[in-house]
User: Fold these one by one.
Assistant:
Number 1:
Amino acid sequence: PSDITPTGDLEDQIVIREPTPNHLIQGGKVIVSGLAKPSEESMLAELVSSDGTVVGFQQVFLTPTPDGSYVPFAFEIPYQVDKGTWVRLEISENGIRIPGIEHLSSVEVYLSP
């Protein structure tokens, strides 16, 4: 049998509390809230359709705590769709030492115009 040794802290770095999965959202903006343990000062939130089109985005600025604890966040993402569309809300943080996404959390929601 394989031995698996977990590395470091296994808690989610980004926790999305709102919106909940499979939630219907109307009115042209998505209200997002949750908790993050940011290692940098900015994160990117995007609404991505199944074909890869970004229908809304917002840059989020958070100040990391000295002890590395969770920081609450809340913001709105404006969006524009012509018809009902399933999208994935993705909140990501890029790494500085190693280029690319360091942390990512997502939830699927249904947007209506």
Number 2:
Amino acid sequence: LRAMNPQILAMDEITAPGDIDAVEEAVGCGVQLLATAHAASVGEFLTRPLYRRLAEDKVFKNAVVITLRGGRRYYGREALK
């Protein structure tokens, strides 16, 4: 992290406790994060212990929620509490 000095890291599906350690280390070095997660809602997302921990630690402050209505995708932003 320090040698390459990334501004943003993008990742897919944080699923293991080791992933959380890496995310927290990156945030501690000032890196911003973009991550994906599959969930039916923000509420469901926050029931998962790994994601809940990141939300409680304010690692992620917002979620982009994609919904499908009438065959079209709609995008919205929800604050994580």
Number 3:
Amino acid sequence: MLETRYKSPEELRFSIGEGKKVAIISCGACANLCDTGGVRGMNFIKGLVEDWGNRVVAARTAIACCPEPIMREVLETTVKGSGAEVLVVISCSAGVKTAVLCNPGMPVVAACDTLGPSSLIHQD
């Protein structure tokens, strides 16, 4: 499991821009266990984005963001046709990379920094 922390609000706001239609995909696996992803993380980022004057046109929590088949399904069923201009991915760098490799047709913005293997895992 990779540990994630939110980027600063200033960095995220700069990366998204102003007056954009935003799609959000949140990881239900590792990022959720780090309290950055899942439904709670999605709602948190959605609130920030809307407070900045952007409109969230699609939002979904995925079981995990790193497997390409899951990311492709989420993009196809949730993001495609939404009119989104930017995709915010709440996951570790693996999920962000997968989103980019799936070529969603819009800029991909990482909402989190990846810190490395989690200290939440007990190692003997």
Number 4:
Amino acid sequence: MFANIRADLRAHGGHWGAQGFWAMVVYRFGRWRYTIASPLLRKPFSLLYKVLYKFIQILTGIELPCEAVVGPGFVIDHFGGIVISGYARFGSNCRIRNGVVVGLKNVLEPCAPQIGDNVDIGSGAKLLGNITIGNNVTIGANAVVICDVPDDHIAVGVPAVLKSRHESRVLT
């Protein structure tokens, strides 16, 4: 747990006061409590986690349940209005900003996006449903992504339009 917290602190630029870092500390604590084998010993830690989770949710506007899988180097750049489903999975070195929702498209289908490595998600973006976001992807601000995004692409717009990073651009 402490190695992950140190890595999270480095990912947040060493800023102890970053509210995204606070959310990550509570997230890491929530994941760590599952390693306690005895249910009787785990109960007080679970209660503490639930109190801390609600406190962080109210204070920062970040909803990051410990059931979500988050890789190393995960950065919450700006706080507020962030909702991440417990079914979501993030690879390493991902960055999200305020107003991002990563969740279910439909309550009857409990599956959320699976996000690869080195993904940058802009403010207000919504990633919904059983989709896969590849590696080295950028999701533009306010984009609504409801389809798979392959590696090395950019998704922008409502609904999101995919553009390859390797397309040649002609400036006019």
